[in-house]
């Protein structure tokens, strides 16, 4: 950290409403607190936010009434299953009138939206305290990597959770900020202050996405981005895993000297095992996976002791692992992530389907942190269910196919349990028969495989890429919401 900046951050936290530093210190301290004490404090936070949502948020009052329950019926963690799961389409349908807490509508709130992996954004509201908690959670994740506040961060991702206008669109110009200030000064001020704080006190710089629409990227674009990374000399490079994979291939193919980096933050998506190995080899740097969403901020991150497992920030969110039959999963059981924010009172998010699957462990990490840890295996829309009903993870499928000679890029789409369609950007040595054999080897029961060679793979509306798409993922979702809402993102 810059010696000049270090004393100003806690001072800034004391004299302004920017309390992220204070919350960050509490998050770091609580990581090592007695497990039972943490669980008790988490439960109290959970009960408080449930009571608040019931009393002040029309959407949740209706949900509770329809289920025939009140907050008094939630006496244990097992009772949480009495509260119906909330889906993303429900959030979109009921925003803003039924979702913003009545006692927060005249208070300081800001508008934002999700990144929308599949191109469908969800509009959100965050109260002032929640904004600070979310940034504290990001700082907490970096602390796990060994990166201190004030160290230089360079970010390259398809998009980022940012302040937005009430209608959900981001700020694109000074005129946008001015117009928003005239109608909603609090929201506009938040947006400006965040840019100032991040660039000065937190020394963060963001580069635009390297690929706006598809995988057809010119060599000079890669050269320019690598040059910019070298010029910035960040202490932490925060980047989309697929971008880093492309960078690493370009570096290896052209025998280039990589930028000098020590740590890389894998953000905006999940990396596969092969991706991480290639990225670490090409950049000669340590990678760390984090996890979260614009709705909650970060609530999972790896430490340097046991890679692959992410610590859960238990004071920030309550994460349930729910099996397809709707019951709680046991340690190590593949399940759906259902998440409750413990910090957003302006727009409470209670038992929301995140849209990802994974599993947890209660086994304590060698670093000494006492909370649960988790492995997230991918978007549920990318989980391929085979003819036997066995789920196949997108990361394993991606690694297996991408390792076949002659394939530059691909996108696999499951049409039904017996039919697969592939788009392939091929290279010299591409062999259709070998590709079909590999697919039948990893996905049981596939009878029909249609392969189409293309010049490029297009991104989703969010500029992110869904390279494995499933038509059978609904069978793995919790029973109570299965078939009811097909759009998860």
Question: Mind explaining what this structure looks like?
Answer:
The protein has 489 residues and is an alpha/beta fold. The protein has two domains: 8-301, 3-Layer(aba) Sandwich (Rossmann fold), CATH 3.40.50; 384-469, ANL, C-terminal domain (GMP Synthetase, Chain A, domain 3, 2-Layer Sandwich), CATH 3.30.300.30. The protein has 13 helices and 20 strands. It has helices at residues 8-15, 20-30, 35-56, 58-67, 88-94, 128-145, 174-183, 185-199, 219-232, 241-253, 273-283, 394-402, 432-442; strands spanning 109-113, 123-127, 153-156, 163-164, 204-207, 236-239, 263-266, 286-293, 297-302, 310-312, 317-322, 335-341, 352-361, 373-379, 384-385, 391-392, 407-416, 419-426, 448-453, 468-469. Strands 5-3-6-7-8-9-10-14-13-12-11 form an eleven-stranded mixed beta sheet. It has a four-stranded mixed beta sheet with strand order 19-18-17-20. Strands 2-1-4 form a three-stranded antiparallel beta sheet. A hairpin with a 3-residue loop joins strand 8 (286-293) and strand 9 (297-302). The protein is globular. It starts with 7 loop residues before the first helix and ends in a 20-residue tail after the last strand. The model has no long low-confidence stretch (mean pLDDT 89).
Strand order of the largest sheet: 5-3-6-7-8-9-10-14-13-12-11
Mean pLDDT across residues? 89
Tally of individual helices: 13
CATH class of the largest domain: Alpha Beta
Describe the global form. globular
Radius of gyration, whole Å: 22 Å
From the 3D structure, determine the CATH topology of the largest domain: Rossmann fold
User: What is the structural class?
Assistant: alpha/beta
What's the number of extended β-strand segments?
20
Query: What is the oligomer described by this structure?
Result: single chain
Q: How many individual domains?
A: 2
**Largest sheet data:** 11 strands, mixed
> Helix amount, in percent?
25-40%
